[in-house]
Amino acid sequence: MNKKISILMTVFNGADFLKETIESILNQTYKDFELVIINDYSTDNTIQIIKKFNDDRIKLYNLHTRFGRTKALNYGLNKCSSELIAIQDADDVSNNTRLEKSLKEILKDENLGLVFTNFEIINSKNKILQKQKIDFLKDKKIFLSKLKYTNLIAHSSVIFRRNIKRKNFFYDENYEYAQDYQMILYYLKNSQITQISENLVKIRHHSSNMTNQKKLYKKRIFE
Question: Is 206 helix (H, G, I), strand (E, B) or coil?
Fold first, then answer.
């Protein structure tokens, strides 16, 4: 299994949890990756935390004005050197086998555009609040019907092929907040997707992240 992965992370004022997040990537059992970090004009000590890591797999890009999440992700995609992209949000934590298992799964079938995993929800103290049990493999019809109306897939759990139908994917910049949902629907429409049923990511809920803000996912039907 010799296939490099680009792990894409954007961060804005993420100092509180960033060290733990980066460590969870550097401690992966699969070692052949680059960690592309886009610092979206942070005003805290985000840069200092990143620079303390002495690992040449980390590729840090500092933006000199605030791009916002979606544009920062697209900037990062242009810096990624692999066709295989894994997303890591700056406050979430990956299980150390996440990359190994995700890569193994997506390489099983060239028609697979995206693979996601189950996840646990944690708070700022790393206490597990909930274990997500999305059973895509058991009943795809029910899962897909729900996915038309709300996002059930954690952004930090996905690995995807950048090139789908001979076209490199970029996030839709019309989506300021729900860019992850738009991405999921894009891959659902243009490729096959599947799930690893293990909890391989911890998604952090805390007062300052987007997950806790009252975002409205508009009804979105795909054809």
Answer: coil
- Is it the case that residue 221 has pLDDT exceeding 70? no
Beta bridge partners of 9: 37
Looking at residue 210, its amino acid is: M
Using CA atoms, how far residue 190 sits from 54, 111, 115, 160, 163, in Å, is: 39, 10, 14, 12, 11
In the 8-state DSSP scheme, what is residue 151?
A: -
pLDDT band at 145 (very low <50, low <70, confident <90, very high): confident
> How many Cα neighbours within 13 Å face the side chain of 204?
20
Q: Tens digit of pLDDT for each residue in 39-61?
A: 999 999 999 999 999 999 999 99
> Half-sphere exposure (CA, 13 Å, Cβ side) for 59?
15
Who has greater pLDDT, 70 or 209? 70
pLDDT of amino acid 147: 86
Q: Cβ distance 3 to 103 under 8 Å?
A: yes
Instruction: Collect all residues with Cβ–Cβ distance below 8 Å to 14 and sequence separation of at least 6.
Output: 21, 42, 44, 46, 90, 91
Q: How far is CA 197 from CA 69, 98, 126, 182, 200, in A?
A: 28, 12, 21, 22, 9
The rounded Cα 208 to chain-centroid distance in angstroms is: 18
- Lowest average pLDDT, out of 65-74, 135-144, 151-160, goes to 135-144
Q: Are strands 84-87 and 5-11 parallel, antiparallel or unpaired?
A: parallel
